[in-house]
Amino acid sequence: MTSAAFSPITTATPQLEPANFLNLLIIDDERSIREACREVALSLGYTAHMADSAEHAYRMLETQSCDAVLLDLRLPGAGGLDALRRIKERRPEAVVVVVTGYGTVQSAVQGMKRGAYDYVTKPFSVDELKLLLERVASHLKLKSENRLLREKVKSKQGFGGIVGRAPEMEKLYRIVAKAANSVHPVLILGESGTGKEMVARAIHYSGPYRDKAFIPVDCGSLVPTLIESELFGYVKGAFTGANQSKDGLMSMAEGGTIFLDEVGELPVDLQAKMLRAIQEKEIRPVGSTRRVPINIRILAATNRDLEQAVTQGNFRRDLYFRLNVLSLRIPALRERRQDIPLLIGHFLERTARTSGQEKMLSDEALKAMLAYDWPGNVRELENCLERTYAFTSGPLIHTTDLPREIANLPGHDSSIASDLLPKIIPMAELEKRTILSAISELNGDKLQAARLLGIGKTTLYRKLKDYATEGFQS
Ligand SMILES: Nc1ncnc2c1ncn2[C@@H]1O[C@H](COP(=O)(O)OP(=O)(O)OP(=O)(O)O)[C@@H](O)[C@H]1O
Ligand SMILES: [Mg+2]
């Protein structure tokens, strides 16, 4: 035994990565046990301090750093559970493992209820203690890694809560800042789930119209026969049921911004009316002969190739040019992989706040998420974490808790004989089947289906429309 009981034996070398390291405090009145535990801790490369009573431990905690405690619950004097409470008060972050005697597991249960991380029953073997300490160290490592992710996020939010620090995103923020201060229309391009609406809001809320309305319009989900009256309003008697006149969405946005989401879905006849509204800065409500001047900022978004739609005659070229005065493209998540950990940290923290429960990702789960391609982009990542959070019972999210395609677990392809493999199905067909079966599982609830599938409702409606034109409507 060495005599340097209270001085750290190993010193932590400064590391960028969270250290796989423990600073352990052993509280036991039996000297032989204290020293044996210390030997084990040292053999694992950890630091160990020893105290022979609760009082002694409190004094040490005033000056010593400590991230884990091995606490004998059968201490003389004040009970072990009381000591546990007082240690937790002094060091809420410390991981405490309680040591109980044979046949007193009840006290271990009490200890766990009061915040102990785990327990071990005396007598225990060296191997048992080693395993336990290694588990504590890896728990602490995960905790600090997850905290690191969260800290990074705090300093890495761009405009309007947009998370991302990839160079492409930095460039995007600069364009957003410029766009915010101009009055021209902006066309926002990006795959589904990349944050087009978020960017539109950021442009509005950092610009001069921020105190006025921001009105999003889902061009893909408006009922075609009602789009015109929804957008431009109508006057009394314009059609059956129009008992009084009503303002449209364009008028509601007066002085502010209208966001034409999925603008590529706008029917061709409406495109002409929209063009006129933008060009002339006036609208004509349905059934009215009078034109009403408007003063609104136009932002539009699409995940379609509008240029191609123009070439194919599905989108008016003149409207395309009007909307496309400024354009910006949000990169897909797989094109800016360094933002994945930031976004994970952001959503983990947000869910912890709203649910009051803190959960962490295991190393493996984090690796799987970093390696995945995220075809549904940020929305898919957000939904994945929300669902996984809800369905994971413990504080740790394992790879097996993740959706199968992300977990990428071995075993379900290698072991299947090739003649049993289904014939190759095109992705588009698989996607269609998934969407249609989700809607039917959910008794036709498309909003819920979109949410669970991790796609926007606009995207879902558009796809359904495409299937309908192919003759596949469910
Ligand atoms: N960079 C980001 N930082 C934080 N949250 C993001 C980011 N990008 C997207 N999100 C979140 O992902 C979800 C999808 O974003 P948004 O609705 O803006 O995407 P979208 O491109 O309009 O998607 P869709 O095409 O499916 O309508 C939202 O819940 C949004 O809060
Ligand atoms: Mg959207």
Topology:
Layout: E1 23-27, H1 31-43, E2 47-51, H2 54-63, E3 68-72, H3 80-90, E4 95-100, H4 105-113, E5 118-121, H5 126-154, H6 167-180, E6 186-189, H7 196-205, E7 214-218, H8 227-232, H9 249-252, E8 257-261, H10 268-280, E9 282-283, E10 292-293, E11 297-302, H11 306-311, H12 317-323, E12 326-329, H13 339-355, E13 360-361, H14 363-371, H15 377-391, E14 396-397, H16 404-407, H17 427-441, H18 446-453, H19 457-470
Parallel strand pairs: 1-2, 1-3, 3-4, 4-5, 6-11, 6-12, 7-8, 8-11, 13-14
Antiparallel strand pairs: 9-10
Name every ligand kind in the structure: adenosine-5'-triphosphate, magnesium ion
Mean pLDDT: 84
* Rg (C-alpha, Å): 30 Å
Low-confidence stretches: 1-19, 411-422
Task: Give the strand order of the largest sheet, numbering strands 1, 2, ... along the chain.
Answer: 2-1-3-4-5
Please tally the β strands and state the result: 14
Textual characterization of the structure:
Strand 3, helix 3 and strand 4 form a beta-alpha-beta unit. It is built from 19 helices and 14 strands. It has about 475 residues and is an alpha/beta fold. It has a five-stranded parallel beta sheet, with helices on both faces. The protein has a five-stranded parallel beta sheet with strand order 7-8-11-6-12. Helix 2 runs parallel beside helix 3, helix 6 packs across helix 7 and helix 18 packs across helix 19. The structure holds adenosine-5'-triphosphate and magnesium ion (MG). The site of magnesium ion (MG) has 5 residues, from helix 7.
